Amino acid sequence: MTIQSFPMTSSVSTSQGVLPPAGFGVYESSVAGPSASFVHSVPELNENEETELYSVSWNQDYSCFAAGTSHGFRIYNCDHFKETFRRDLKSGGFKIVEMLFRCNILALVGSKTNAQYPPNKVIIWDDHQSRCIGEFSFRSEVRAVKLRKDRVVIVVEHKIYVYNFMDLKLLHQIETLANPRGLCCLSHHLNTSVLACPGLRRGQVRVEHFGLNMTKFINAHDSQIASMTLTMDGLLLATASIRGTLIRIFNTVDGTRLQEVRRGVDRADIYSIALSPNVQWLAVSSDKGTVHIFSLRVRVVGDDLSTEVTGVNCSALDHQSSSNSLDGLVSPNTGANPSSSLSFLKGVLPKYFSSEWSFAQLHLPECTQFMTAFGSQNTVIIVGLDGSFYRCSFDPLNGGPMVQQEHICFLKTETRPR
Fold first, then answer.
1. What is the C-alpha separation between 74 and 108, in angstroms, rounded?
2. In which band, very low, low, confident or very high, does the pLDDT at 188 lie, cut at 50, 70 and 90?
3. Which of 185, 187, 306, 356 is the most exposed place for a label (fewest CB within 10 A)?
4. Domains annotated on the chain, with CATH
5. Spatial separation of the C-alpha atoms in residues 149 and 128, rounded to whole Å
6. pLDDT digits (tens, 9 = 90+) for 246-261
């Protein structure tokens, strides 16, 4: 066992010192691997024993989502919805479950009721081998974990730690404003390495372009940041504040505000922001019980806007790349000039213009927190902390109310794999 400690911050353990770099298994079947010391399969839960849903999180291409429950975790496929996998615990549940695309590698953070794994500890779990391959311990509660094939990012309330996935060595420590929501997002193209998180001032976003060795601070809002997301290549950022009225889109290289859209005039708590893979649409969910779709006027020159990243497994990640027009900008080995970064955007937008209202809408129960993402063929997929899954379509020409195509209560036992 190799243990490496970092003063006053965290400790890291790995089972063999180095993580497997590639060739991970893929969550495609419902067949569980062998049981392990802290996780085991259960044929059926007691009908009288309720399962509480602690969290839901999308994988990086929105083809799956993971649910952390009071009994363990479950993995669901989105396109043709089904539960593909589950593990149930002897000692308690997980409040955070993060997938690495469709791989068998997961990051797990226990709930306060988990006797063995408390909420200040992150477990890197290889379900294919049914073993823990890394463990991080912190002095304070872990707020979020984000994964790339080459990085593990762990968020505590005032700091973000960036580790190398191969050997779990600490690469960066980033100070932030108080961040109880665990706000942090990553790019997922292999030739762009971008991280966005709250800065040290209210309403500020810090963007790290690791490939360019450049930090950009964007004064996105007057109020504190409530939600944010990046495009897959990390070159566009969408943000909302705790007021919840405006969503803004920025160029992450020079901080230019490219577009502003308006959710409403009343204050709202924004639960999630999603950008479509073709950067044509933006979706926002809030505590008002609505999902709003906005039409974007930001275009990346040279990108195949019709291509969606779906069904990606870990071996396929080696072949991902962004458009050729971006290579000179994002390659870590070039002397790219950030001042010319707008060359990858069509120059048809003024620096600022009045905010725009939503193009399409969907009304949902106000009492539930919903997370949204884009599916295929002008659909939106929505997952709620009440255990509900929705698939809805919108008219890309006329907008208006969205049409519900599918609604599933996924916590029910009949949705489990057989």
1. 12
2. confident
3. 306
4. 1-175 (2.110.10), 183-418 (2.40.128.630)
5. 16
6. 999 999 988 989 888 8
